[in-house]
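Project outcomes to date are best conveyed with an example. Our students and postdoctoral researchers have been running inverse folding experiments weekly, and each run begins with a structure described purely in C-alpha cells. The record below, which covers 100 residues, was selected by the lab manager from last quarter's runs and is presented without edits.
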C-alpha cells in the first residue's frame, strides 16, 4: 500500500481546516472556518455512527458516502436545504484538498 492509499478523510479535512484558520482575515472569514469545523464534526459523527470507524480512507469515499452525508445533515442535524448545500460545498473543497 503506497502513501496515497493511506490518506484519510478526517485527517485531510483537519489539515485543510488548520490552513484555513491561519488564513482568517486574509482569505477566509472566521464564520467560514467555523462552518468547515462544524462540517468536520458532522463527517466524523457520520463515520462513527454509520461506518463504525474513526476515519475512512479517501479511496473509500464514493457517491454513496456523499449521499449519506447529505442525508445525515438533513435528517440527523436538521439542516435546511441551503445549509446542507453549504456543508456539501465544504466537504467538496476539503475532499479535493486531499487529492492535491
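After processing, the design step wrote out the following sequence:
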Amino acid at each position: 500500500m503506497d502513501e496515497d492509499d493511506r490518506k484519510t478523510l478526517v485527517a485531510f479535512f483537519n489539515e485543510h481546516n488548520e490552513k484555513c484558520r491561519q488564513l482568517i482575515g486574509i482569505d477566509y472569514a472566521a464564520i467560514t472556518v467555523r462552518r468547515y469545523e462544524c462540517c468536520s464534526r458532522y463527517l466524523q459523527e457520520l463515520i462513527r455512527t454509520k461506518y463504525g470507524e474513526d476515519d475512512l480512507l479517501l479511496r473509500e469515499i464514493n457517491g454513496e458516502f456523499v449521499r449519506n452525508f447529505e442525508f445525515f445533515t438533513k435528517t440527523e442535524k436538521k439542516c435546511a436545504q441551503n445549509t446542507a448545500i453549504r456543508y456539501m460545498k465544504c466537504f467538496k473543497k476539503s475532499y479535493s484538498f486531499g487529492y492535491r
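The mean pLDDT is 91. Residues 3-98 form a domain with the DNA polymerase; domain 1 fold (CATH 1.10.150). The training component of this project remains on track.
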